[in-house]
Design goal:
A hairpin with a 2-residue loop joins strand 10 and strand 11. The radius of gyration is 21 Å and the shape is globular. Helix 5 packs across helix 10, helix 10 packs across helix 12 and helix 11 packs across helix 12. 41% of the residues are buried. With 363 residues, the protein is an alpha+beta fold.
């Protein structure tokens, strides 16, 4: 197996090249979790994998609580299936608390303040209410809890990982929070070993081929826990060693060794790139800083035959979405045609007419 084959298998396993899944909840369950700090970009991460759905349909699934947006793993916001949220929080919350402890101390956020904050949040939200961050900040301030100086996002994140709150339905274009027990009344829990096995199985099945280091990065788990999880599922996986690195994945018997020419416009922070510590299968060293900034911003990328060959951005003007590519290299006629087709797919997803705004800069 070579790097090109790795990228081809990942395109399939991540449901980008083809999928039999039908709903956002099924996709989130398959992927384990999908990074989602940018809500609009994260909806397209689902849309590019489920091309039969529109942005409105995906947002409807979110508003209905089929998928939840909350802090998990590294930590950052992720989409997760409602069926998986409780056991995944229980597994990853201890490590999140460990990584945020120092910052919370710097902000003067104590366990007593978190407890009092959560009491206020429960009282405000009970009865299936949902409020925006600004509305909850007002309620906390009225209760004598200071939310200035970045304290508010940490108060909310602590409440998320303590299973108090999660995402609620959109209020116009604003995110809201609601009580997790009311949003997801059925609580699926697992033992720690069961959760480790299930998380590792989801990752290496949906993201493989991947290494142990990739899994540690994606999951945010301590190395010992991640290694234990992989050991428990190794009998269900196959492996290949490339350049002294061992890649683990489910049997790709249905995946062709080579794929027809393909182009995908992937959103910022897409799992195809961000979910691996080693990203060399998809992006070259020369282009790495173009696709990923020094401070960890993952930009929207153009993927041609599994390789990142440029960036793209969208501009919406009334009923038209303008797609502007920024290529890293020249593209042949076939690739140009596929880039146009990918732009049209984004237009269909957005419910807009898509127009390609060609980049006039030299390559």
């Amino acid at each position: 197996m070579n790097q090109s084959e790795i990228s081809n298998i990942r395109l399939h396993n991540q449901q980008i090249a083809a999928t039999n899944l039908r709903t956002p909840k099924e996709l989130a369950g398959w992927m384990g979790a999908m990074q989602a700090q940018d809500f609009n970009q994260a909806k397209w991460a689902i849309g590019v994998r489920l091309p039969h759905l529109t942005e409105a349909q995906i947002e409807s699934a979110f508003n209905n609580g089929e998928i939840i947006r909350t802090h998990l793993m590294r930590p950052t916001w992720h989409f997760v299936s409602a069926d998986d949220i409780y056991w995944m929080l229980e597994l990853t919350a201890p490590q999140i608390k460990s990584t945020t402890k120092s910052r919370n101390r710097d902000l003067g956020l104590t366990e007593a303040i978190f407890k009092r904050s959560q009491e206020v949040l429960i009282k405000a939200l009970e009865g299936r209410k949902s409020f925006t961050r600004e509305e909850l900040s007002t309620q906390l301030n009225q209760a004598g809890i200071n939310t200035d100086d970045q304290r508010m996002p940490h108060i909310l994140m602590e409440a998320e990982i303590d299973q108090i709150i999660c995402s609620g339905a959109m209020q116009g274009k604003k995110q809201t929070f609601t009580l997790l027990t009311e949003r997801v009344p059925i609580k699926n829990t697992l033992t720690k070993d069961e959760a480790l096995v299930l998380l590792a199985k989801k990752y290496f099945t949906s993201h493989g081929p991947a290494t142990l280091s990739d899994f540690v990065w994606w999951s945010g788990l301590p190395v010992a826990d991640a290694r234990s999880a992989l050991e428990m599922i190794k009998p269900t996986l196959i492996s290949e060693t490339i350049d002294f690195e061992t890649y683990w994945f489910a049997d790709p018997v249905s995946i062709p060794a080579s794929l027809p020419d393909s182009v995908y416009l992937l959103p910022a922070f897409d799992e195809y790139l961000i979910s691996y510590k080693n990203r060399s299968a998809a992006i070259t060293i020369d282009h790495h800083k173009k696709g990923i900034s020094n401070n960890g911003i993952f930009r929207p990328v153009i993927v041609v035959n599994g390789q990142i060959s440029g960036l793209w951005k969208r501009t919406i003007i009334k009923n038209t979405v303008w797609i502007e590519p920024d290529h890293f290299r020249p593209h042949n006629k076939t690739e140009e045609s596929l880039i146009l087709k990918a732009a049209e797919s984004f237009g269909q997803f957005s419910g807009k007419n898509a127009e390609l705004k060609l980049n006039t800069k030299p390559y």
